[in-house]
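Researcher: Please translate sequence to structure tokens.
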Amino acid sequence: MQNPVEAVEAIKDTTPLLTDDTIVFGLLMIALGLIFYTSGKKEGFWYQFYKIVPALFMAYLIPAIFTSVGLIAPNWVTVAEGSDPVEGSTRIYFMSSRYLLPAALVLMTLSMDLKAVFNLGPKALIMFVTGTVGIILGGPIAVILIGLVSPETVGGEGADAVWRGLSTLSGSWIGGGANQAAMLEIYGYNQKSYGQMVLVDIVVANIWMALLLIGIGKATRIDRWLKSDTSAIESLKEKVSTFAKKTERNPTLRDYILLAGIAFGTVSVAHFVASYVSTAFDGIVGRMSPGLWQNSLTFLSSKFFWMVSLTTIIGVTLSYTKARTLEGAGASKIGSVFIYILVASIGMKIDIMDIFKNPGLITVGLVWMSIHAILLIIMAKLIRAPYFFLAVGSQANVGGAASAPIVASAFHPSLATVGVLLAVFGYAIGTLGAVLCTFMMQVVSGG
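Model: Translation complete:
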């Protein structure tokens, strides 16, 4: 039986200095404001600084620093003497991903040229599939390599077997949250230890995203090294930019209200329809015989999946109407504002100090992600794929629909849809790919 001292030590007060979402959101916006103010300098220290470090990366890093020093936090536990511990959390990421992300996708898709997107060719899909293969092969290779140095890190038996826990990472890094939950159900990993895997997921995926964002600032140099053909991407960007200039006008209040109506009206419709569709599929999937096929379709029960998909469909449809002329009033610029807020909210989910909490499992994740990255670089070099396809193909796997559009739109707002389309593929193949990966991890673990 646990003694009182151990009980007190088991629950640590992790309350940050700021817990009010109103105040935290304001702090994030001040940080974004300062980033854009300094990044607009045309000379001096800040000019040289942003030539090396992209503003988008700083929008991600500064909130992470705030979390790391205890100023803010995504989740916390408040322990008061004489009272039961109280859990708290911020709703900023939920607001950003559920309201601002779909709004941004609509605004960025209004002026898109769907034919030009398809003219990007097969390289985007090839890089996405390569990223998936990198995750599938990276898991068992990481288990083998770490097992040679530290067998206990990848050991365990029964429900505590580490390969079972790593299966949830493969589900998350190929598909998304729904696939991750499916893998937890399929392989029955000890849920008391599941938090460790969530930590690895957050830390490793965010480190990799940070590296990709830094790479965006050096995309031209990377493309030169890859000897890639970026003509199709430049053509799409040029078409959208030309259309924006042709329709450019001094925005009126009417324009802004129309944009707000289209953006958040679409969010409303997408949420409404997604609720019914996801519930319907939840019933259909739930009535299926338990097994691999049932778990492979769990993503269809995800409201987030349908919300993003429906938002994209509505945006594409509107691009064939007069609504596309609203690009001249700054539709994609407003969408970019929403994307930056989402980036900041993702950044505040990472505590840099978490890297040192479970170094063994974090190392497994880092080796795993390195194999994924190496395979992508090799393929990009072989087929001369632009860095854009490498970055978005990777994030469509590892980050899913929440972060793939972020990386894509960092190259140009018109490219956000490419990230969404690839992320949807990830949801579809996530569980099957993760099962294959887990089978190999189980074999090499001797489980």
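Researcher: Any highlights?
Model: DSSP finds 20 helices and two strands in the chain.
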